[in-house]
Amino acid sequence: MADKTFHIAMYPWFALGHITPFVHLANKLAENGHKISFFLPAKTLRRVEAFNLHPNLVTFIPIIVPHVEGLPLGAETTNDVPFPLHPLIMTAMDCTEPDIEAYLRELKPHFVFFDFACWLPTLTRELGIKSVVYCVISSGTIGYLLSPARKIIERGLTGLDLLEPPKGFPSSSVKLRMYEAQGLAAVTTMDYGSGISFAGRHLKSFSYCDAIGFKTCKEIEGPYCEYIGKQFEKPMLYAGPVVPEPPKMALEERWERLLSNFEAKTLIFCTFGSECVLKKDQFQELVLGFELTGLPFLVALKPPTGAQTIESALPEGFQERVNGTGFIYGGWVPQQLILRHPSVGCFVTHCGSGSLAEAMVNDCQLVLVPHFGDQIINARLMAGDLRIGVEVEKREKDGFFTKDDVNKAVKAVMDGDSELGKEVRANHAKWKEFLLAPGLENYYINDFVMKLNNLM
Question: Membrane-spanning residues where (predicted)?
């Protein structure tokens, strides 16, 4: 490894699912002596401060997010607003460019790591700073949706286009249903702040940056990363698994007391991240499916559409029937700590990249319920390419799933005697062992830093 240490500025998209993996990378780089200046929305600071393991080297710099008409007062991140308002959060982030420029002129870092702020490469080039897109969206998703081979800017993008992979895309298990393809095409081409489409923003970032980095290993996503590197003619940087350190704090007593009531590897734990909101009928099918399994379960979700509380949306008589074995909670839970608890045997996830990364280094079996965006392609890669989870079957025309579909998927992974159960358990154990292998993270971080050195 090169013994040179770098000063790296980081400016991730204003979403906790992006900010958190940037913090994890900052910690790994700081372990190796690199200095990090981390820009983030001012009020978000309190939510991530505790994850800074190297405050002597990682400095959080709060950015005042300007108000944009149409946003609620004080809104800073995607967690503060529904999905249709995310482009306005992006516009607000774009409005911080003068402040970021002033900080970069003062700090003079060697690199800026970013993802959605597509104006940064032009700015950094003027200042003599190298820019790196650090992408927390999976390389399979980026390659499938945003490959230059699709010529999205010239031709546009339709659902029909997305039923087939782009030219040269690696052989994979990614197959989209028409409703998924149409939804992804709509999101990819929608205006995503400051009059730039989501696709246009990312294509600009990938085209003008100095290098592209992914939070992954060659062994898992190599073909997709190499495809992206060739398509954009950029050096590819692999950060490795960037497994977050086990939290220093213990599980709160109320959760410990609850989870300890159940035998090892019997509990179903379901959570869908900080932004996913189910329709009421799908929420009810989900929890009724858990009831059908006969297994204990803990569900931590936001209240479904139109419901003030999660309890008010439960099916009639449900709470009485599952009393003592089924627990529904409408607030935030310490996901990483709960996944590590010995009682948890099955994790039902929306397939966000962060949740999948945490699940892969734990023992729980995976049931996949993707909702939108990169979650869909993540699910196909996990269930198809890696064969370490089972996706809940959905209706072909609209993606509706029933309680029986949920029950079937959970039973499939929890039955250690079935062929499918044996296969996903063996594959999960293999990848867990690989990701936690001594020396793997150091190898990747050292190689990552060497490639940064080559850019200088």
Answer: none
The position carrying tokens 């850019």 is 455
Backbone angles phi, psi at 250, to 5 degrees: -85, 160
Q: Which residues pair with 269 in a beta bridge?
A: 298, 347
- The angle subtended at Cα 373 by Cα 399 and Cα 436, nearest 5°, is 110
> Which uninterrupted H or E stretch holds 123?
helix 120-127
Q: What does the pLDDT read at residue 102? A: 97
pLDDT under 70: residue ranges of the chain: 1-3, 246-248
How much is the pLDDT for 101?
97
- Are residues 5 and 35 in contact, defined by beta-carbon separation less than 8 angstroms? yes
AA letter at 324:
G
The answer to whether the beta carbons of residues 388 and 427 sit under 8 Å apart is: yes
Q: Are 274 and 355 in contact (CB under 8 A)?
A: no
pLDDT in tens, 174-215: 889 999 999 999 999 999 999 999 999 999 999 999 999 999
Residue 154, C-beta contacts closer than 8 angstroms, at least 6 positions apart: none
Between CA 169 and CA 177 the distance in angstroms is 18
pLDDT at 130: 98
pLDDT score, position 119:
97
Which residues form the catalytic set? 18, 115
Query: In DSSP terms, which residues pair with 111 in a beta bridge?
Result: 8, 130
- Tokens representing 413 are 């992974």
- Other beta carbons within 10 Å of 108: 11
Domains within the chain, CATH numbers bracketed: 7-243+437-455 (3.40.50.2000), 253-435 (3.40.50.2000)
User: DSSP secondary-structure letter at 260?
Assistant: T
Q: Which residue has the tokens 């009531």?
A: 261
